[in-house]
Specification:
Elements lengths: L13 H16 L9 H12 L14 H11 L2 H9 L3 H21 L13 H32 L11 H12 L2 H6 L6 H7 L4 E15 L14 H9 L3 E9 L5 E6 L7 H19 L4 E6 L7 E3 L5 H13 L8 H15 L6 E7 L7 H11 L1 E8 L4 H6 L2 E5 L4 H9 L1
Parallel strand pairs: 3-4, 3-6, 6-7, 7-8
Antiparallel strand pairs: 1-2, 4-5
């Protein structure tokens, strides 16, 4: 690897060499195969984005594409807008480097501009700077979405668990999602994350060998507070018989079944309703991750659609697939709530998690007539509670079946929080 043009970067360092070669390889896998995309160029782009303040060596005598692009990147007004999302974040810096070069190659082809990689004509410099500025403007809109996707994924993780991003698996998905308008709308729910995390409470159950939770009275000698042994033997025996021994109260996190979301996508849900429902789905996903439980989801109209399943320790790739599926869904069709709930119960029974308490959340605006007797039996078999969210309407059958029944008249963030708290 030959030298780049940034001060303080050791281009012979194996880690820096590996990073540059990795980005070139990844760019090639994503269809970006251009002669000018070298390990030296992507290394300089990466560290310009990654470092708080990258300094470029001045070489007035050099007039090649690499030096021209790196210098133009460092002097661009758009760089500061981008760097607030990339500084000290290797994952986002790598993706942004690739995104800039993708746009640069596309815009250059549109101009039918041929460049000499080693030596430029004087007239080409301004054209290249102009194309790079245009590329940076396009990426400025997308890098914020990339950062939101990363933050949203990590926000639901329990403290100390950490997160893993696989560039080989996730890079293309993130870059594609960043260019989808519908994804940006869904990610507006990100502002809710602190409230969702704060309002989500882990569920606990008593367990003799669990964590300390205070004190209790009883006769369980396994949890006896040692200071009780200082009392006379007769007092201890009497306290034991009357279940008045001072004990440690201990608890353990309750193992829960899936949080299952059924979202109506019928024709009447078109527009604001379906977008609000998608944002609610993201908030409930965060809730499920905080409660360390699996997240299941199906859209439904006249029939249930494919099952989306996010495991308790979901990879970033699984998370991206959910966001992509949410963005793609369009409203249309009829409404069959009975079939949707029945299918959800069958999914839970089939998962083998019936012994754990599960929750099914239905979001709909439909006034469908339900088979109440059948659904009661199914919910009992699945050991699942039903929570219904009725958008701008009412359904007496759902109200009868539901553990909690919420009617929504205003589609805003506060209503989403009410659902998360339920």
């Amino acid at each position: 690897m030959s030298r780049g043009f940034l001060l303080g970067i050791n281009y012979e360092d194996p880690v820096i060499r590996y990073r540059g070669e990795k980005i070139v390889k990844l760019s090639s896998r994503l269809g970006l195969k251009k002669e000018f995309i070298t390990a030296e160029l992507v290394t300089d782009f990466f560290y310009t984005l990654y470092l708080p303040h990258a300094l470029i060596e001045e070489h007035p005598e050099v007039n090649n594409l690499h030096y021209t692009l790196v210098k133009a990147l460092n002097e661009s007004e758009e760089l500061l807008k981008i760097k607030k999302h990339t500084i000290l974040d290797s994952f986002i810096s790598t993706l942004t480097t690739i995104a800039i070069l993708q746009y640069f190659a596309e815009f250059l082809e549109e101009k039918n501009e041929l460049v000499n990689v080693r030596e430029l004509r004087e007239t080409q410099n301004e054209v290249l700077r102009s194309v790079l500025r245009e590329s940076l403007k396009s990426v400025t809109r997308e890098v914020e979405t990339m950062k939101k996707l990363e933050r949203l994924y990590t926000s639901g993780i329990q403290p100390g668990v950490g997160s893993e991003f696989d560039l080989e698996e996730d890079a293309e998905k993130v870059l594609r999602l960043a260019r989808m308008t519908d994804v940006s709308m869904i990610l507006e729910v990100l502002s809710l994350v602190p409230d969702v995390v704060r309002k989500t409470r882990k569920k606990y159950e008593k367990f003799n060998r669990g964590e300390f939770n205070g004190y209790d009275l009883g006769s369980d000698l396994e949890r006896l507070v040692p200071t009780q042994l200082a009392f006379p033997r007769k007092y201890l025996l009497l306290s034991y018989v009357e279940s008045k021994l001072l004990l440690y109260d201990k608890k353990i996190s309750k193992s829960l079944g899936p949080l299952y979301l059924l979202t109506d996508k019928s024709g009447s849900m078109e527009g604001e309703k379906i977008e609000w429902a998608k944002a609610t789905a993201v908030a409930l996903l965060i809730k499920s991750r905080r409660e360390v439980r699996e997240f299941y989801m199906r859209f439904f109209d006249g029939a249930p659609h494919d099952l989306i399943r996010i495991s308790r320790k979901a990879s970033f790739s699984e998370f991206l697939n959910l966001i992509r599926n949410l963005a793609r869904v369009k409203s249309g069709g009829g409404t069959d709530i009975t079939k949707a709930i029945t299918t959800a119960c069958d999914d839970i029974i089939g998962s083998g998690l019936v012994k754990r308490d599960s929750d099914i959340v239905v979001i709909t605006d439909g006034e469908d007539t339900l088979s109440v007797t059948t659904l009661k039996r199914k919910l009992k078999q699945a050991n699942a509670r039903l929570f219904s969210v009725m958008i701008q309407g009412d359904n007496k059958d759902l109200k009868m079946l539901s553990e909690k029944y919420l009617t929504v008249s205003t589609l805003d963030k506060n209503t989403i929080l009410r659902i998360v708290e339920s």
